[in-house]
Give the backbone structure.
Amino acid sequence: MGENKRLMLSGDWYLPDDEELEAESRRRADLCAAYNGTGGDGMPGAEEGDRILRELLGSVGEGVRIRPPFQCDFGTYISIGARTFINFGAVFLDPGPITVGADVQIGPNVQLLTPSHEFDTERRRAGWERALPVTIGDNVWLGGGVIVCPGVTIGENTVVGAGSVVTKDLPAGVLAVGSPARVIRTLERGVVPSIQESE
């Protein structure tokens, strides 16, 4: 393993312009294109799509469904738990680990982002970046267009409203909305809010 890859995986600052990382990215590009071309998720070619997905990603649980198009940086550093559903247009940038639990519902155009860039103008111009893990707990629901920023953990059973930007960890069992996302209520098991309560 080269030094840049070691730094990347340890969450330290690294330079992504590296032959080893570029080779992994080309592998990812080919597999993503092949997966997206199958139609995936119950369409003709879904069996082939499932095989490609298991080659692309680090770990895929039973019954995972990802509707194409799906894009990632490497794929290798993504783990998805059983029965999770990911809707159209997901972007998972994974120079850092992305862990998605079981029974997660991910709406269309959701972004899980592990990389960040330097605030220092010269280091940013030179291309330095680092990646911090993103972790999504079991039975989380991310509404359409949610963005989860580097280093964020979302606790199990939490719901994040559509269009929210999650910049800090969220605890288990809450509803969070907004940009930046903030907790607006605790979710109780077996209690279904009325339409008025959810607005």
